[in-house]
Design a protein that fits this description.
Order of helices and strands: EEEEEHEHEEHHHHHE
Structural class: alpha+beta
Number of domains: 1
Number of strands: 9
Helix content: 25-40%
Radius of gyration: 16 Å
Shape: globular
Distance between the termini: 23 Å
Length: 223
């Protein structure tokens, strides 16, 4: 793990980074990328809300808890990745792309020409799975879930997240069918970007704890 690639908002802003932040009891993650003269963020919110917004708006919402995990990519790779994010963002903004919230990692196919995703397996994404899905689709898998164990507390964290869903039918589906799914926290997703990818669980966990410590210095309930 390279801890120097975890940046604060006061550091020079990179052209590509994984945003990790916390508000209240829940942590959150998304992808920050260069767009025009500034930076934007694409991420997954709860219910049916895949979001595209300015980085300034994201920073205002999360404040000082926000950190940026910078993946180890070449300049040309960063430029291409940011370009793909801009395509994805346009589809979100034009309401052509919108995922429901789900607790199980999907299998997705990405169309480079259109910037659209099609889920071959799965019901949707968490904020963590959205970031993982985009990185994997663009050729940079952050986490290898082979052998990933559902840990003590994961089921309860999934339950707490499901309980935030206002759509009662969707909430009950998640509680009945997806509570025992493998999960990666936002901190672990950000931590993976600081390592040689893809990472296994035994690498993601300590990296995630490092990111969490930089945010607040204690464990969090994450989504």
């Amino acid at each position: 793990m390279d801890p120097t690639r975890l940046k604060k908002t006061t550091d020079p802003r990179p052209d590509l980074a994984i945003v990790v932040a916390k508000q209240g009891e829940f942590a959150h993650t998304g992808i920050m990328y260069a767009r025009g003269e500034g930076h934007s963020v694409i991420d997954q919110r709860q219910d049916y809300k895949t979001s595209s917004s300015s980085f300034e708006k994201t920073l205002k919402y999360f404040g000082a808890s926000l950190v940026l995990a910078v993946p180890d990519l070449l300049e040309a790779e960063v430029e291409a990745f940011a370009g793909a994010c801009r395509d994805i963002a346009r589809n979100i903004e034009q309401k052509r792309l919108n995922f429901r919230y789900a607790l199980k990692m999907p299998v997705a196919v990405y169309n480079e020409e259109t910037g659209m995703f099609e889920l071959e397996e799965g019901e949707g994404v968490t904020c963590s799975f959205f970031v993982l899905m985009v990185f994997e689709a663009l050729g940079y898998p952050l986490i290898d879930f082979k052998g990933w164990v559902v840990r003590d507390g994961d089921v309860e964290k999934n339950r707490r997240l499901a309980e935030q869903i206002q759509d009662t039918t969707r909430r009950e589906y998640l509680i009945q069918h997806e509570l025992y799914s493998q999960r990666a926290s936002p901190e672990e997703v950000g931590g993976a970007a600081l390592c040689e990818i893809p990472v296994l669980q035994n690498e993601a966990e300590p990296a995630g704890k490092f990111v969490a410590a930089q945010i607040e210095g204690k464990d969090t309930i994450t989504g």
